[in-house]
């Protein structure tokens, strides 16, 4: 009887092992865990941060309060650091003042109490060495591991040193370290805006003018959280003034620029049985008038509208998005693809003092997927591929255990009879 139990248990164990080993093998096929994303906040602590023009308090006080809120909400998977510029040297020697940048908190796992304590000690002091601070922050992030890197520069003025920070940003981009620099200007000065816009554009980042503490808090939080998203580098493209001259796009992510109230065209070939999914975002990276909209529509080569979406904004967000879906019915295999003309338009306007060149940043996403009525190549009866094999092995193991136990009992009974 013991042989019967042992044999039956062995058969059951085989089934268990067959079921247990496969998920481990399947897990091995899953992508490895990605390194932690890295963010360094670069804060201007120069003497001009004493000015009291943000909600009745100084720029420095507003920045400190915003940092406290940001540190409280930073995702646990983000390695965050803080660097200052102009925080230590109060003198008039330019050479010394232009070296005044230091890492206040190292890039790594965040200890919120230590980071807040470090920020609380800051007081507006010296010069505005933006270029040297960018170079030093880039080195901080490069040394902080292999994760994606993002720098957020918060300043209220132009670089007061000899280095052109826009050239510095271009040099950083040329290093190929895939570092994105976002810039936030605390005053709506056109010269400062041009310099900070140039820094951001050189690295694929964004520029935003900030005039209220809540706005500063929200924007920095948004940028820190954005670091956790998968990084996909858009492909630069140039939309045309009409569909006939428009570039033909495949599935992917694309970047372009549109001037205020402009329309641009792109083309996508959609095969029978595919569904076109397209979305566009246009960022207001400078001061704009409230009340604007973004249009995305698909039309045929003959001008007949197929699908459209238009979304409006009120000035409370830094981007407006629209999206469309167009399924192409299945047909004979020799049916040619249909060319869909995509029109991207905007109704942004701006005060007379705002420059309209370069145009507003446009990000266009194109995806071509199987139509819902076609079988997917990813799933089988509602389960991802590999699960059906798991079920088959489990059933096979169970049957093998039963057969082995039955055979053992038959042999025992035969032995007793003889």
From TrEMBL:
SMART domains: VWA. The chain crosses the membrane at residues 386-408. It comes from the Bacteria. InterPro entries: CLCR, VWF_A, vWFA_dom_sf. Keywords: Membrane, Signal, Transmembrane, Transmembrane helix. Residues 1-28 form the signal peptide. The keyword Signal applies. The keyword Mitochondrion does not apply. It holds the Pfam family VWA_2. Residues 38-223 form the VWFA domain. Residues 309-331 are annotated as: Disordered. This is Ca-activated chloride channel family protein. It comes from Actinacidiphila paucisporea.
